[in-house]
From TrEMBL:
Protein name: Putative FAD-linked oxidoreductase
Record's compositionally biased regions (Basic and acidic residues): 26-35
Cofactors (names): FAD
Residue ranges constituting the FAD-binding PCMH-type domain according to the UniProt record: 42-221
Stretches the record annotates as Disordered: 26-46
GO MF terms held by the record: FAD binding; oxidoreductase activity
Keyword entries, A-Z: FAD, Flavoprotein, Oxidoreductase
InterPro entries attached to this UniProt entry: FAD-bd_oxidored_4_C, FAD-bd_PCMH, FAD-bd_PCMH-like_sf, FAD-bd_PCMH_sub2, FAD-linked_Oxase-like_C, FAD-linked_OxidoTrans_Type4, Oxid_FAD_bind_N, Vanillyl_alc_oxidase_C-sub2
Keyword Transport among record annotations: no
Superkingdom, natural source: Bacteria
Length: 458
């Protein structure tokens, strides 16, 4: 395992918990803060939870943590899929979900200033009132926070066209481990003064500082959206169709793939009948002034491989998007779910899908697959019994083999969920010694005592 060994043995969580603002040591708060939605089983709950209400609360907590050498685990809405906000005994959780105000929306500059606990969907609902939207839209939009999105560089369904969180953050207000406040970025569209500290903090999984405010880029709502649902005999054909759309040089705003077993789980949860129409499904949306022209190109690319239908109205399109958004919750009804997050070059989707089927056959682990197909980002989902853990046995073997499959195809360990606790074993394989050394040095420079989210990410 790639770890940095911080000496936190002198830590006294009791001293911090006595002096910090809005502390809870209630069993249910500590239990809830001990894990996320990754399927990770924590060994023990944290010693306490600080529910920050303001940037001052964050400053005060981090100053105490530095003084008493207490490890602090930042937490947003706890919907992460890499156990990056998981915590254990000897740690204190700093929960910023209560800092949840939209401070300003500027329709002329097309930006929003928000606190970190604002939910992704809440920001979108507010922006819609101005004819604008915030582009990164994880399938968890209704339940995940902007701070968590920034700390994981979250992606989503619309990222196909509009990019991931990194492309929508203008500036950040961050509290460093020692309590100092840092401003990164700027509120203009362009600007290159100094190193790009936004990029450093985006995706840093709570290891470099706590985001207490963010200025985000909004975009005009598309004038029109066109939706195609395509059904295929098998998932390899769906993957080939997705690669054909990319090769046709159209730019879908969304291209989501689901395999047959996932369709079955969605049907069971929603009472729909998608599985009866094919063994795999591709949802392709195009948007903007050319939406329906682009749709014709999509149909031309996909039709040779599957049966296509155009959404008849907005309600029909929304139902198709809901089916995709409900994929993970539907599988969670079947058992404990651990979600892979590999990325591969977009022309190799069919190969990776075939490789996943082989891994499932070899390890005996049930793997369901969905993908943000236009980004080459797949979510192979391992469904286990409730008492099984992804950190051991066949599920862990399957996870490791998925990574090696992605690497062999020129891909990556994690497209959007982050490394957290669950993927550290394979980090060095992907990054190499020099990159890892540089990253450890950056972390050490910003958090010399090693109090921020120890044991996670790098
Ligand atoms: C049903 C479902 C669907 C999902 N779909 C997607 C998807 O399509 N795309 C995608 O990218 N993800 C998806 N996710 C994963 C998850 O929602 C995202 O990773 C999200 O960005 C996590 O946000 P959160 O507020 O829940 O963060 P948490 O889980 O609370 O924390 C995640 C990480 O961020 C850190 N953190 C949180 N807040 C702050 C802060 N203010 N400052 C510094 N660090 C902080 C934590 O320490 C941790 O490292 C999905 C999850 C679920 C359950």
């Amino acid at each position: 395992m790639n770890t940095i060994d911080f000496d936190l043995t002198a830590g006294s969580t009791a001293a911090l918990l006595q002096a910090a603002p809005n502390v809870s040591i209630r069993g249910e708060d500590r239990e809830r803060a001990s894990t996320d939605r990754s399927g990770y089983l924590p060994p023990s709950p944290p010693d306490g939870v600080v529910f920050a209400r303001s940037a001052d609360d964050v400053v005060q907590t981090l100053r105490l943590a530095s003084r008493h050498r207490v490890p602090v685990v930042p937490r947003g809405a706890g919907t992460g899929l890499a156990a990056a906000s998981a915590s254990r005994a000897g740690e204190v959780v700093l929960d910023v979900s209560g800092m949840n105000e939209i401070l300003r929306i500027d329709p002329v500059e097309q930006l929003a200033v928000v606190q970190p606990g604002v939910l992704n969907a809440e920001l979108n609902a507010a922006a819609a009132g101005y004819g604008l939207f915030y582009a990164p839209d994880p399938a968890s939009t209704a339940i995940c926070s902007i701070g968590g999105n920034i700390a994981t560089n979250a992606g989503g369904m619309r990222c196909a066209k509009y990019g991931v969180t990194r492309e929508s953050v203008l500036s950040l207000r961050v509290i460093l481990a020692d309590g100092r406040e840092l401003r990164t970025g700027r509120d203009t569209i362009k600007g290159v003064t100094g190193y790009d500290l936004n990029a450093l903090f985006i995706g840093s999984e709570g290891t470099l500082g706590i985001v207490v405010e963010a200025t985000l880029r909004l975009r005009p709502l598309p004038t029109a959206t066109a939706t195609v649902a395509a059904f295929f005999p098998d998932v390899e054909s769906a993957a080939r169709a997705a690669s054909a759309v990319v090769a046709a040089r159209v730019q879908p705003s969304m291209m989501e793939l689901m395999d047959g077993p996932t369709l079955e789980a969605v049907d069971m949860a929603l009472g729909t009948d998608y599985r009866s129409r094919g063994g795999a499904f591709l949802l392709v949306q195009t948007d903007g002034y050319g939406a329906f022209l682009e749709q014709e190109v999509v149909l031309e690319a996909v039709s040779p491989l599957g049966t296509c239908e155009k959404a008849v109205d907005d309600e029909h399109a929304a139902a198709l998007v809901t089916a995709r958004r409900e994929a993970i919750p539907s599988l969670e009804r079947l058992g404990r779910v651990s979600i892979g997050d590999i990325g591969v070059p977009r022309g190799r989707l069919a190969e990776v899908v075939a490789g996943l089927e082989q891994i499932s056959a070899d390890t005996g682990v049930r793997i369901f697959t969905i993908a943000h197909a236009s980004d080459g980002n797949l979510h192979p989902m391992i469904v286990m019994d409730q008492e099984e853990s992804v950190t051991e046995g066949p599920p862990k073997e399957a996870l490791g083999r998925m990574f090696h499959l992605a690497k062999r195809l020129g891909g990556t360990l994690t497209g959007e969920h982050g490394v957290g606790l669950l993927k550290r074993d394979w980090l060095r394989d992907e990054l190499g010694d020099v990159s890892l050394e540089v990253q450890h040095a950056i972390r050490q420079a910003l958090d010399p005592l090693g109090i921020l989210n120890p044991g996670k990410a790098i």
